[in-house]
Amino acid sequence: MAERASRRHDGSSSIIMLTTGAVCLAVLALLVTAVLSAQPSTGIITDTQPGLTAEPTTTMEAVRPVAEQIAPVLSGRDDAASGSPVSAAWTATTSEKTGIGTTAVDAYGRASLRLATEQPRCRLGWTTLAGIGGIESGHGTSSGAYLLPDGTTSHPIIGPALDGTAGAAAIRSDAISARWHGDSQWDHAVGPMQFIPSTWNTWGADGNGDGDTDPNNIIDSAYTAGLYLCASGADLSTGAGWTRAIFSYNHSDDYVRSVLARANRCAGVA
Fold first, then answer.
1. pTM of the model
2. H-helix or E-strand containing 31?
């Protein structure tokens, strides 16, 4: 987002400017939920190689969620048919407590479990992914969409045109990106985690093992977001590591605080 969200966000984020003083996390969470849940964030990931570029800097105090929870692994034969490594009972209970749909909870859990094996030093919890997914698209429900059982949105969630207005960067579309959002002139972010096509072309990963990489599928996009967060090599269980990772995802202190509030809310009720 220009300065406010250069990693996945180009400058057009709709994150509200919350005060940095004595605003309690509970109030912050309520404000963010009320303002952001109805529409996708307008910020866009623009850096395609976070681990290879200069690290963004922030003067804010290092923060981290009260608990970075990893979803429990598959337990019981009844879960096997789903093809998910996440316990169906845990998913159902967590969904009920947090108000997040079961498909989204499962997607965040899958990503955290997979990365715990592939990149154990990262220590990325599902609560952080849920914080980001809630801000970006209301967990795949922005613009009247909903998640199908396979994790794909009922219709594409497309962010505003990145045409240089309203604080957004001006990013021209091309034939490759237009196939995702249909605009031959200006680029748009797409999917539950709001990736711009050029970033997806570099980082997009197959989270559900179906042989496809689709930014409109929350299982694929949550896993891809996790890969990006872990790319810095930081330990996200530390304040410095977590703050750095989230700030690299969106160069905005307010975005970091918003993700923190949502992650803490999930951890507090799950």
1. 0.79
2. helix 25-36
